[in-house]
Amino acid sequence: MKSESVEISRILKNYDLCEYCVGRLISKLLGKSPSKLLGKKYLKKFGKSSNAKCYVCKNIFENLDSMLSNIFEKLNNLDFKTFNLGLILKNSFLERDDLIKSKFKIKGIENIKFGISTEMAKKISRTTKSKRIMNDPDLFIQVNFKDESSTIRTKPIFVYGRYNKKIRKLPQKQMLCKSCNGVGCHNCNFKGLENIETIEGKISNFLIKKFEGNQVKINWIGGEDQSSLVLGNGRPFFAKILNPKKRNRILRKSSNLESILLSELKKILLQPKGSIPFKSKVSIIIDTEKPILVTHLKKLDILHNAKIYDPSKDKKSSNKQIYQIHYKKLGKTSFRLDLFADGGIPIKLFIQTSDVTPNISQLLGNNCQCRKIDFKNIIV
Fold it and tell me: Domain holding 330: CATH number?
């Protein structure tokens, strides 16, 4: 113990240090945890003033409250139980810290950056009744001591749901904001989207309002033309709400957004990666160039369990199948075709003359066009 006291005396004789830095630098020598109380005890023991300007941290610990006050103001309206903290510190702090540790051969102790972070985290945790964790916290606080600023980034919320589209002439996807190309800016109110009436816009606005987020990114399970209806159980989707302020809001299973109905809504931990295979039951009204007879339509029986090839896609993406077909003549130059098939088949190209094979127009020897496509059910 005598040798440790001599070493501590040498450190304090050569450098003015604050209670925090003393407690941190001598903790390993004494086999104790670093603390302000430990530093205070040894400053008093060796008759050193605790009011002198600290060589290492320049008394930064005494000024943490002003930085924390700004952080608490930003945290005031946020729902969170866990957080993590990151610091940006001038290199000179670390250089001075390393100089003392090197000069007195002090090893195995936390550096000044870690010490500041630990002290701030304790106060944040105590004041907000939250817990600091390293992996997947509810929010991340970035503190910049170079310009005395702080930023808060909250963990995204992921939502799964389905939508039914009850009216025609409503596009599924919204155009990206022309000013920021989807990043989010003042022109689009940080939503990343143009202000037009779409399914994407309706779902995004609903979720932004619900969780007070900045932006919503939607992962669609297939898509439809703006003139199509989505009936039955609805089309599935996954939504990612960025920077939500309110994590604890109740999300009811269904919500009526006038022209679309949301169902099966629920918060999930993460959305699946990559494309999700699905099947669709589709009803298509088709117009023909020449009159069509029931006997002509029987040529479509060949499509039962047929594989569909689209040369514009890679082999994996083009490997789609039709499982069931039904058809009914409606008029002299029109018929209805009902399909149960893999999602991702380019239906309009499958109907009209194109490179997609087999092809309705080619099978019938009659140029065909889609008048209407409605989705009856979508199965994941």
Answer: 3.30.70.3190
Angstrom distance (rounded) from CA 190 to CA 375: 33
Among the three residues 216, 241, 268, which one is the final residue of a domain in this structure? 268
* 91 and 166 assigned to the same domain: no
Query: Are the C-beta atoms of 108 and 217 separated by less than 8 Å?
Result: no
For residue 129, count other CB atoms closer than 10 A to its CB. Answer: 7
Positions annotated as catalytic residues are: 225
Question: Are 168 and 258 found together in one domain?
Answer: yes
> Could you tell me which of 323, 319, 316, 310 has the C-alpha nearest to residue 354?
310
Q: Are residues 73 and 25 in the same domain?
A: yes
Alpha-helix runs per DSSP H in the chain: 2-14, 19-25, 27-30, 36-45, 64-75, 91-103, 112-128, 199-211, 294-297, 315-318, 347-351, 360-364
Percent of the chain past pLDDT 70, that is, above it, reads: 98
* Residue 274 domain-assigned (yes or no): no
How many C-beta atoms lie closer than 10 Å to residue 186's C-beta?
Answer: 8
Could you list the residue range(s) of the whole structural domain that residue 56 is in?
Answer: 2-154
Query: What is the pTM assigned to this prediction?
Result: 0.85
What are 130's two structure tokens? 């939250």
**Range of weakest confidence among 222-226, 273-277, 279-283:** 273-277
Whether the pLDDT of residue 300 is over 70: the answer is yes
Helix/strand/coil for 364 = helix
